[in-house]
């Protein structure tokens, strides 16, 4: 008797959860809602209002006293900080329409200019997507790959080229001298953990 | 009782003939046996450590073994050149020696099969290619076709040779009614073994050098040069060491046929050279690699020009009656043709299929010590087999070796 | 210098010993996997073709293999035999305008698929082309061994090549023993226990996608991936051919992870999905982008599409 009740309650809860999930998904249905990684802020930089709340808004183009690591190389002739960062509440970004968006949804900001990329990204074509081909996918924000202030993709060191056929020889070295995969020292953790399971 | 012992007695008689010989005969046998041992040793190492001991790699995945295989298929096919005039046109001088040609074909096929086995990564799984017990991919795979035609050709020649020898050994003439159908089958079959082997390469669109329809005709033409050249030399040796009489007319006739075959071979070669160099498409690269070198890689250039000069010289030597009927120039021409075709239809055919490879990489392949050793072993095995076969067949042919048969008078 | 000399002497010594040992053991025992002499060797020898096995046969074979692998690699392997999913036909897309030639995919594939580290084997080849030079059909200008400080190199672009999983695969056609075939979900697979190592498929492949185990493949124990599929990344043998399987051990599952090369690609140039699903990424590529396939003139009809996202 008691067991049955538990099953009923459990079932009801499940339905509620599913309904909530569905509602959540349909709220924003052209953009998938499951970015797992949060925006890649530098350590301790967010929330911005912690400093900026008390500061006066200064719209002039100048050499910054703080944030000196930021060099704008992103149509800098036409643009300055407050074109994207909201002057009154720095924890938000601002679209051209004046609408405020959170840093988690910065793709709307990027998508204003890069419409074709935005479209491809939503379809999973532009940018990296991991997870399951027939199930949940993990997206990345534009800013995970492109520094918004210098969006050009940073060059990488390539992994070693394959051996020439002349250099592939019979090797009698003991098993502990078998060459290791050079990738592993680089990013093994990333591969082993894989994407989150459902 | 005596009937039952007869096969044993006959076997001992045959054994006596095979093992009897002069000092040079024993020296020859020991020499061959040593080479075979050398080859077997190399092959065991290849089995143990893997084909990494060869110089083949993913870029050039077939090499010296398959080159030798291709050349030898040609030698085997060329027995047809002797069979056609002997049986169809009853050209007497050649008819006497056609048996030797067929024995050479048997030897060549056995060597072919050995070279293929040496090239397998998993020879113990060879049975997978058989129908019923295995999963033969017939008719899609040309290699399945090749297994069928090569083994069929081996069987046909074995039947023909051993039937004739059997009849002769018991002192009777062979029956034309039995030989005739075998001959009728064997002629197209001989052409088919070389055609199928050509198609094996020809059908691969990935390899432009092979994917030319002229390949099969060129195979046949060059085979009709190298096979008979080997035979001319063997016949002269046989003539010297046994009582068999092989007329000069027969040898000169074969030499004349080689001249025509070489003429055709050179013409087909010219046709291919013209097409490749005149159109100058991207598929020229392998040809360029062979004759002029590609991006500084030119290992085969010397060999290919040598082969061309050999073939051309031999063509004129065979063509002119004065030179083909002079034993010095005749033998010189034979050796030139054998070397020329061995280069052209061996490494000169296989390697450019892989250079440059399908992704444009150039790996200059040359056989490793292990590959050369195994190849020497197979050649020595072929030579030994052929020697013993001759040693057995020639006395039967000359009437020295006769098997005892049950006396019809005893029965009743 | 001296050290090298010493090693050479040492190796020559072992050399001779293995040679003698080999000569003594004879042909059969050496050619058989792992050189053991118990009954499983004969079971392995008479093992049926994968497609001829009943469910019971498969279970027995998997059990035996897991035992063999445990013994040979000192690692517990899980060998799946997951069947293709009806209604799924895999397709792959590679964005030529994005690839930077960093070779992460090459080595992620090596990890996932237990490719031999010694002798080295890579299923993916990345080609580097000079902008403005010939490419699509002429690979002679390509560099395979490029190794600058950083990539992409100025004035160059990249073209990774792996098995194209052709709709009309020449390798399958030529295999004399049917040891390689195309599965209903589009993956061209090899039964490593049926392949005789004739390498005809390698001669037939226009993409250089097939690899041969010239020696016994070796992977150090800590780098083995024990999650395997019979037709995929289980450890291979000396003398057989292998190739990319779109990570069959991942992609055939439900949910099915993306292939390792897709997962690793730092620029997201690699796309994968079901060609029969109109909402898949690969269908989006084909319907909205300019796509091409390698060596289209050969009519192999790859299920691997190259495209230009921008």
Descriptive overview:
The complex is a heterotrimer of chains A (198), B (412) and C (310). By secondary structure, chain A is mainly alpha-helical. Chain A has helices at 2-27, 49-52, 107-113, 115-122, 142-145, 182-193, and strands at residues 92-94, 100-102, 130-131, 137-138. Chain A folds into two domains: 1-30; 32-165, no CATH class. Chain A is 31% helix and 5% strand. A two-stranded antiparallel ribbon of chain A has the order 1-2. Chain A has a two-stranded antiparallel ribbon with strand order 3-4. In chain A, a hairpin with a 5-residue loop joins β1 and β2 (100-102). The longest helix of chain A is centred in the first third of the chain and has 26 residues, at 2-27. The two termini of chain A are 32 Å apart. With 412 residues, chain B is an all-alpha fold. In chain B, α1 (2-19) packs across α16. The longest helix of chain B is centred in the middle third of the chain and has 32 residues, at 248-279. The mean pLDDT of chain B is 91. Chain C has a single domain, classed as Alpha-Beta Plaits. Chain C has 310 residues and is α+β, with helices and mostly antiparallel strands. Chain C has a four-stranded mixed β-sheet. In chain C, strands 1-8 form a two-stranded parallel sheet. In chain C, β5 and β6 (188-190) form a beta hairpin. In chain C, 52% of the residues are buried. Chain C is built from ten helices and twelve strands. Classes of the chains: A mainly alpha (198), B mainly alpha (412), C alpha+beta (310). Chains A and B meet through loops of A and loops of B.
Topology:
The complex is a heterotrimer of chains A (198), B (412) and C (310).
Chain A: H1 2-27, H2 49-52, E1 92-94, E2 100-102, H3 107-113, H4 115-122, E3 130-131, E4 137-138, H5 142-145, H6 182-193
Antiparallel strand pairs in A: 1-2, 3-4
Helix pairs in contact in A: 3-4
Chain B: H1 2-19, H2 23-49, H3 64-77, H4 79-88, H5 92-95, H6 98-119, H7 142-169, H8 176-202, H9 215-241, H10 248-279, H11 285-291, H12 301-319, H13 321-324, H14 327-344, H15 347-350, H16 369-398
Helix pairs in contact in B: 1-16, 2-16, 3-6, 3-8, 3-9, 4-6, 4-8, 6-7, 6-16, 7-8, 8-9, 9-10, 9-14, 10-12, 12-14
Chain C: H1 2-25, H2 27-31, H3 39-45, H4 55-73, E1 78-80, E2 90-95, H5 104-112, E3 125-130, E4 156-161, H6 170-174, E5 180-182, E6 188-190, H7 200-204, E7 211-212, E8 227-229, E9 241-242, H8 248-251, H9 260-264, E10 270-274, H10 281-288, E11 290-292, E12 304-308
Parallel strand pairs in C: 1-8, 2-12
Antiparallel strand pairs in C: 2-10, 3-4, 5-6, 7-9, 11-12
């Amino acid at each position: 008797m008691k067991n049955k009740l538990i099953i009923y309650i459990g079932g009801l809860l499940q339905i509620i959860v599913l309904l909530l999930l569905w509602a959540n998904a349909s709220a924003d249905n052209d953009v998938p809602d499951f970015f797992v990684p949060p925006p890649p802020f530098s350590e301790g930089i967010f929330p911005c209002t912690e400093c900026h709340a008390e500061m006066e808004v200064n719209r002039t183009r100048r050499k910054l006293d703080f944030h000196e690591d930021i060099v704008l190389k992103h149509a800098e002739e036409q643009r300055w900080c407050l074109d994207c960062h909201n002057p009154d509440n720095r924890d938000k970004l601002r679209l051209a329409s004046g609408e405020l968006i959170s840093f988690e949804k910065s793709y709307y900001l990027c998508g204003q200019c890069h419409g074709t990329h935005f479209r491809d990204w939503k379809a999973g074509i532009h940018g990296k997507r991991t997870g399951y081909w027939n199930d949940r996918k993990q997206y990345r924000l534009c800013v995970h790959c492109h520094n918004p202030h210098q969006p050009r993709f940073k060059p990488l060191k390539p992994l070693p080229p394959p051996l020439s056929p002349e250099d592939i020889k019979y090797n009698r070295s003991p098993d502990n001298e078998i060459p290791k995969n050079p990738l592993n020292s680089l990013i093994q953790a990333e591969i082993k953990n894989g994407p989150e399971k459902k | 009782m005596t009937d039952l012992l007869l096969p044993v007695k006959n076997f001992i008689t045959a054994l006596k003939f095979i093992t009897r010989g002069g000092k040079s005969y024993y020296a020859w046998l020991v020499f061959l046996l040593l080479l075979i041992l050398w080859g077997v040793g190399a092959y065991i190492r290849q089995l143990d450590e893997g084909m990494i001991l060869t110089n083949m790699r993913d870029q050039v995945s077939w090499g010296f073994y398959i080159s030798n295989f291709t050349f030898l298929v040609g030698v085997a096919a060329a027995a047809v050149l002797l069979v056609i005039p002997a049986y169809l046109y009853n050209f007497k001088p050649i008819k006497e020696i056609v048996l030797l040609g067929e024995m050479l074909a048997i030897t060549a096929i056995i060597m072919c099969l050995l070279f293929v086995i040496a090239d397998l990564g998993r020879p113990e799984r060879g049975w997978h290619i058989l129908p019923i017990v295995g999963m033969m991919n017939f008719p899609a795979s040309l290699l399945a076709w090749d297994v069928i035609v090569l083994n069929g050709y081996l069987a046909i020649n074995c039947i023909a040779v051993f039937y004739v020898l059997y009849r002769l050994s018991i002192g009777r003439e062979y029956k034309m009614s039995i030989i005739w159908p075998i001959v009728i089958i064997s002629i197209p079959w001989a052409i088919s073994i070389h055609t199928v082997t050509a198609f094996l390469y020809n059908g691969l669109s990935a390899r432009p050098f092979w994917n030319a329809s002229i390949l099969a005709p060129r195979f046949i033409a060059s085979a009709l040069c190298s096979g008979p050249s080997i035979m001319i030399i063997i016949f002269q040796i046989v003539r010297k060491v046994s009582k068999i009489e092989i007329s000069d007319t027969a040898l000169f006739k074969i030499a004349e046929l080689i001249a025509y075959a070489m003429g055709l071979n050179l013409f087909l070669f010219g046709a291919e050279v013209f097409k490749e160099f005149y159109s100058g498409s991207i598929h020229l690269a392998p040809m360029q690699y062979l004759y002029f070198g590609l991006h500084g890689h030119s290992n085969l250039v010397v060999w290919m020009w040598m082969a061309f000069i050999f073939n051309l010289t031999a063509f004129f030597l065979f063509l002119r009656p004065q030179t083909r009927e002079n034993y010095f120039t005749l033998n010189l021409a034979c050796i030139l043709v054998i070397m020329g075709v061995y280069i052209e239809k061996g490494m000169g055919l296989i390697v450019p299929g892989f250079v440059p490879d399908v992704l444009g990489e150039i790996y200059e392949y040359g056989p490793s010590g292990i590959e050369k050793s195994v190849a020497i072993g197979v050649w020595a095995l072929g030579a030994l087999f052929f020697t013993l076969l001759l040693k057995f067949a020639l006395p039967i042919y000359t009437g020295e070796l006769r098997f005892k048969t049950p006396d019809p008078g005893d029965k009743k | 210098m001296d050290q090298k000399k010493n090693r050479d002497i040492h190796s020559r010594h072992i050399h001779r010993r293995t040679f003698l040992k080999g000569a003594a053991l004879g042909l059969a025992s050496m050619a058989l996997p792992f050189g053991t002499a118990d009954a499983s060797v004969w079971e392995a020898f008479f093992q049926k073709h994968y497609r001829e096995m009943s469910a019971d046969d498969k279970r027995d074979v998997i059990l035996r293999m897991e035992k063999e692998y445990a013994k040979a690699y000192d690692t517990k392997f899980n060998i799946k035999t997951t069947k293709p999913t009806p209604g799924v036909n895999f397709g792959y897309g590679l964005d030529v305008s994005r690839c930077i030639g960093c070779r992460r995919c090459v080595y992620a594939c090596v990890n996932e698929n237990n490719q031999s580290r010694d002798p080295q084997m890579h299923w993916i080849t990345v080609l580097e082309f000079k902008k403005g030079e010939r490419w699509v059909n002429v690979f002679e200008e390509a560099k395979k061994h490029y190794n600058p400080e950083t990539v992409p190199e100025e004035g160059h672009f990249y073209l990774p090549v792996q098995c194209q999983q052709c709709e009309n695969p020449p390798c399958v056609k030529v295999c004399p023993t049917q040891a390689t075939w195309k599965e209903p979900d589009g993956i061209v697979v090899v039964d490593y226990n049926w392949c005789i190592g004739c390498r005809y498929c390698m001669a037939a492949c226009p993409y250089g996608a097939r690899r041969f185990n010239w020696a016994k493949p070796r992977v150090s124990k800590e780098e083995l991936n024990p999650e395997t599929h019979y037709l995929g990344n289980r450890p291979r043998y000396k003398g057989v051919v292998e190739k990319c399987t779109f990570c069959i051990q991942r992609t055939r599952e439900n949910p099915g992870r993306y292939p390792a090369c897709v997962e690793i690609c730092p620029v997201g140039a690699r796309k994968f999905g079901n060609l029969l699903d109109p909402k898949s990424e690969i269908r989006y590529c084909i319907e909205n982008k300019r796509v091409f396939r390698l060596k289209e003139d050969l009519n192999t009809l790859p299920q691997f599409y190259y495209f230009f996202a921008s």
